[in-house]
Structure formats: structure tokens, C-alpha cells
């Protein structure tokens, strides 16, 4: 096993990380990951980058090989995963361009292969606190210091996709008190927990989902809007990731995380 320190999953709109990285084809007992993994050095820290939808965005959320992607990171020795995503907001006060550092998910997906423990090894892993509290704190502090509007916690409801939600579904999710909506956080986040990898999600808000109750100016989300807002904010996401990598690397003892078992 190699000792890559940090893994990054790129989401919609983030398909490459650094031109100096070298691409590597990997295989796992769960099949091939979404594409070649780009591996390189970021200020002395070894980083592996994988766009979860593939470089050409050819994999829809329900067909992403989540197990292969997480397992490939594990094979590389990754101990911490930084996982930005494009996400919708279910609350008026969480606006496009804001970042939410989610602390909980609600799984509304179906039929995804969502465990490594299918026998003979059978385990039941807690998902009570699925996100790494240390990485969340770091992401929030750095994001704020860079002038980003940060919501330091939030529940992401993960829908099956590829369709966006109906108005009724979106209203329901909002009324449940959930803040963020997305299509890829499950099972990616949980699978990292199964393998004892610290995982943080940085939800870049691109839209207000099916709209906001009582505000007819806001139209239901479209695919074009998600990509447009993500592209407008791509640099902000990368700047945050680079500084997280730098600070994790600078903290020599920083790879001990009691919560995640590292
Ligand atoms: N990704 C970005 N915006 C989204 C939304 N409104 N619903 C689901 N996934 C999304």
C-alpha cells in the first residue's frame, strides 16, 4: 500500500486538480473506479484526485462505482477524504455560492451497493456521526478566513436522481428540517466510514432546488444552472482544498483522528 495522505473526489464541475499530477489506472475487488486516479504532490503532501462522475461526466449519480472509488483510495493508503459536491439548498438563508459543511445525511437513494460487508465478513458500522468532526472544523475555519459564507453544519438529503425533485418532495425535505440536497453523498460518505477513512463534504450550493415557497422569482433548478454556478465558484472550492491540504500536511501529528479511528 502506498502512503498517499489525502484523497479528493471531484464533483460536478471539478474534473481535474493539478496539471502536474500523473494519472494511474487502478483496479479493485469492486471493479474499476470512475476513471484513472490522478496522483501528485501538493506542497509536500501526497494527494490522489478522482472525479466521481468520470473526467467526461459520463457516470450519473446512481451508476457511480462508489465502492471501487473508496476502495481505490484505501489501496493508496488515503486516510482523509475531502469531498466537494454541487448541492441544492432547501432553506432561504442558505444561498447559491455558500458552502455547507454537512454533519448528517439522510439516505433517499435506492438500489445502490452500499457496503463492503456482504459476507463472509459481516460488520455493522455506526453511521450516527458520518462526517469527520476535525476535518469539518478545519474546512469551516479556512473557508471563513477566505471570505466564503460557511454554514458549519447541515443535513444533506441524498436523492437517487438523476432527476431533480418535484415541488412536493422538495417542500417535504425542507419541512423535515433538512438543509441541503444532493445525489452523491450516499453511499460515498458511509463507505469511507466502513474503511475507517475520515471524510468531509463541502457542499457548494448551486441552487434552491425546486424553488422557494412564496418566492415566485426563483425558478426550479436546471442542469445548466448547477454547472454555471459551480463553475463560477470552482476557484473558491479549489482554494479551500489547497489550504486544507497545506494545513493538514503542516500538522505533522495531524493524521490522528479519534472519531474516525485513524
Ligand atoms: N445537485 C445540485 N443541486 C441539486 C439539487 N437541487 N438536487 C439534487 N442534487 C443537486
Automatic annotation (TrEMBL):
Q: Which PROSITE patterns match?
A: PNP_MTAP_2 (PS01240)
Q: Name one GO cellular component term.
A: cytosol
Instruction: Write down the position(s) of the site called Important for substrate specificity.
Output: 165, 223
- Record InterPro entries: MTAP, Nucleoside_phosphorylase_d, Nucleoside_phosphorylase_sf, Purine_phosphorylase-2_CS
Provide the residue positions that the database annotates as binding phosphate: 12, 52-53, 85-86, 184
Q: Which UniProt keywords apply?
A: Glycosyltransferase, Purine salvage, Transferase
What the entry lists under SUPFAM superfamilies is as follows:
Purine and uridine phosphorylases
Its Enzyme Commission number(s) read 2.4.2.1
Gene Ontology MF terms in the entry:
S-methyl-5-thioadenosine phosphorylase activity
Recorded hits in Pfam families, A to Z, give: PNP_UDP_1
GO terms classed as biological process: L-methionine salvage from methylthioadenosine; purine ribonucleoside salvage
The positions annotated for binding substrate are: 183, 207-209
Nucleoside phosphorylase domain boundaries: 5-245
Quick one: which pathway? Purine metabolism; purine nucleoside salvage
Question: Which top-level group of life is the source organism from?
Answer: Bacteria
Which CDD domains is this protein grouped with? MTAP_SsMTAPII_like_MTIP
The family note in this entry says: Belongs to the PNP/MTAP phosphorylase family. MTAP subfamily.
Q: How does it assemble?
A: Homohexamer. Dimer of a homotrimer.
The function of this protein is: Purine nucleoside phosphorylase involved in purine salvage.
- Please identify the protein, giving its name as recorded: Purine nucleoside phosphorylase
Amino acid at each position: 500500500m502506498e502512503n498517499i495522505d489525502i484523497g479528493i473526489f471531484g464533483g460536478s464541475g471539478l474534473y481535474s486538480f493539478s496539471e502536474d499530477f500523473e494519472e494511474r489506472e487502478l483496479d479493485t475487488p469492486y471493479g474499476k473506479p470512475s476513471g484513472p486516479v490522478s496522483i501528485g504532490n501538493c506542497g509536500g503532501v501526497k494527494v490522489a484526485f478522482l472525479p466521481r462522475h468520470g473526467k467526461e461526466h459520463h457516470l450519473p449519480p446512481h451508476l457511480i462505482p462508489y465502492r471501487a472509488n473508496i476502495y481505490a483510495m484505501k489501496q493508496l493508503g488515503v486516510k482523509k477524504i475531502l469531498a466537494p459536491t454541487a448541492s441544492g439548498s432547501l432553506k432561504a438563508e442558505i444561498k447559491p455560492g455558500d458552502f455547507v459543511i454537512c454533519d448528517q445525511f439522510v439516505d433517499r437513494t435506492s438500489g445502490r451497493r452500499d457496503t463492503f460487508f456482504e459476507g463472509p465478513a459481516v460488520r455493522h458500522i455506526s453511521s450516527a456521526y458520518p462526517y469527520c468532526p476535525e476535518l469539518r472544523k478545519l474546512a469551516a475555519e479556512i473557508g471563513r478566513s477566505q471570505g466564503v459564507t460557511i454554514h458549519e453544519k447541515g443535513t444533506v438529503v441524498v436523492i437517487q436522481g438523476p432527476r431533480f425533485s418535484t415541488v412536493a418532495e422538495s417542500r417535504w425535505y425542507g419541512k423535515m428540517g433538512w438543509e441541503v440536497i444532493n445525489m452523491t453523498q450516499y453511499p460515498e460518505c458511509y463507505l469511507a466510514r466502513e474503511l475507517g477513512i475520515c471524510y468531509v463534504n463541502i457542499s457548494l450550493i448551486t441552487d434552491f432546488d425546486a424553488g422557494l415557497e412564496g418566492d415566485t422569482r426563483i425558478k426550479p433548478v436546471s442542469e445548466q444552472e448547477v454547472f454555471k454556478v459551480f463553475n463560477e465558484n470552482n476557484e473558491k472550492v479549489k482554494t479551500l482544498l489547497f489550504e486544507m491540504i497545506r494545513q493538514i500536511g503542516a500538522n505533522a501529528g495531524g493524521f490522528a483522528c479519534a472519531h474516525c479511528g485513524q
